[in-house]
Amino acid sequence: MVKAKEAKKAKTSTKTFHNYIGGEWTKSASGESFENLNPADTTDVIGRFPASNEEDVNRAVEAAKNAATKWRRTPAPKRAEILFRLGEILRANKDRFTREMTREMGKVTKEAGGDVQEAIDCTYYTAGEGRRLHGFTTPAEMPNKFAMCVRQPVGICGLITPFNFPMAIPSWKLIPALVCGNTVVLKSGEDVPLSALNLVKSCEEAGIPKGVVNLVNGHGAEVGAPLVGHKDVRLISFTGSTDTGRNIAEQCAQTNKIVSLEMGGKNAIIVMDDADVENAVEGSLWGAFGTSGQRCTASSRLVVHRKVYKKFCEKLVERVKQLKVGNGLEAKTEVGPVINQAAMEKILGYIEIGQKEDKAKLACGGNRLTRGDYAKGYFIEPTVFTDVAPTMRIGQEEIFGPVTSVIPFSTLDEAIDIVNNVPYGLSSAIYTQDVNQAFYAMQELYTGICYVNSATIGAEVHLPFGGTKATGNGHREAGTQVLDIFTEWKSLYVDYSGKLQRAQIDLVEI
Ligand code: UN1
């Protein structure tokens, strides 16, 4: 009885959050909402968020449309000034945003702090573009004629982001979209709505005009799909699974939208026989189990030279067994939970597949943790498979969890083939002391990111981020390259000769 009463009290005191549309914090059109739960302790309800639908999306797009002209005409350096203010606000609130992120997403606070920091870095770096946004001039082929090229905003952008980097990934899309003069509708991962809300609320505090940034909470089918299908949305920028991305691209083709996709990975670290094995083990631990392996860039394959294979595996397994799994809010925790029930089942499913697959050996881990407080969350033991053949499913498919596969090899060319022969091409790494091998690998690895003597994770915001093959569709986020997503080129010709000059026809005699 007392228990029921307590539960009721907890329910009524649950905080309610809203959508942000046209500068107003509003309920969903349907009045429906969903709970945001802590994946480390599902009895901890972070809040109720609007379960939005097409009507909310339409309102948000309308608001973005109404704000578009004024924002586009605001000089880029002025747009950027507001973004610098946003950077200050994010910095001032970093500790709170970090704790709230860990609570809703599960990653340990050090990493959540890194996520918020990445948003801060992205904001400062990209805001600097307000005084660049470089175009170019080039000579015209006629006398007394001027040729130049400028960037123009694309219009209304729909941004769809995943759970694993709850603030960094929205910022990678939002900040460049804004500095380039676009207005946006953001739909963040439904498991992590608070971090996106913190970012958007900070935009409001920074003074970004009403309607320029809109936030619609909810699920893919109810919010993502109408956003992708909306005729007034010019661009969709999506980070998530390859299957969803492919589907979005097909939908976008119907309305000729620009579409930028950042999807799966099956990243690998090569460990050569001359590598500093201790360092390679530390890198592998961080790359494979950081964020509980829930990174597109996770080191889910460790491709190890036979000469150091035994030593590497022993050291790795010894270290993995020591990793402290737990609630990310506790200082001693090294590996947090995975995001939700479905993710946990998928990961455990892959562990089962790995155990059934020929030859692969489960060297450590392999189970859900259920003792004591673990039972309240989605905890999986850090898991290592050794003797994995490159063609096995666990060696080919994205698992997105704390599971890595060790694959032996004999020559560098063989290792490079193993790394390249997967559907994805996001990140790769090589540990070696030999500069020739390092450069050869940098040349041959067909991935968008490649590390030498470091794991596959940890991209910095001023370099392009993205991958080849099923990882993307040719675009790059971050760096200055992201500007090519959020602007369209306009070629301008000015003829000041005072007469008709026909290109390609009125050839200048020399
Ligand atoms: C992702 O996993 O989608 O490079 C992004 C990294 C991070 C970003 C990862 N800075 O691992």
UniProtKB/TrEMBL annotation:
<comment type="similarity">
    <text>Belongs to the aldehyde dehydrogenase family.</text>
</comment>
<keyword id="KW-0560">Oxidoreductase</keyword>
<dbReference type="InterPro" id="IPR015590">
    <property type="entry name" value="Aldehyde_DH_dom"/>
</dbReference>
<protein>
    <submittedName>
        <fullName>Aldehyde dehydrogenase B</fullName>
        <ecNumber>1.2.1.22</ecNumber>
    </submittedName>
</protein>
<feature type="active site">
    <location>
        <position position="262"/>
    </location>
</feature>
<dbReference type="GO" id="GO:0008911">
    <property type="term" value="F:lactaldehyde dehydrogenase (NAD+) activity"/>
</dbReference>
<feature type="domain" description="Aldehyde dehydrogenase">
    <location>
        <begin position="25"/>
        <end position="491"/>
    </location>
</feature>
<dbReference type="InterPro" id="IPR029510">
    <property type="entry name" value="Ald_DH_CS_GLU"/>
</dbReference>
<dbReference type="InterPro" id="IPR016160">
    <property type="entry name" value="Ald_DH_CS_CYS"/>
</dbReference>
<dbReference type="InterPro" id="IPR016163">
    <property type="entry name" value="Ald_DH_C"/>
</dbReference>
<dbReference type="InterPro" id="IPR016162">
    <property type="entry name" value="Ald_DH_N"/>
</dbReference>
<dbReference type="Pfam" id="PF00171">
    <property type="entry name" value="Aldedh"/>
</dbReference>
<dbReference type="InterPro" id="IPR016161">
    <property type="entry name" value="Ald_DH/histidinol_DH"/>
</dbReference>
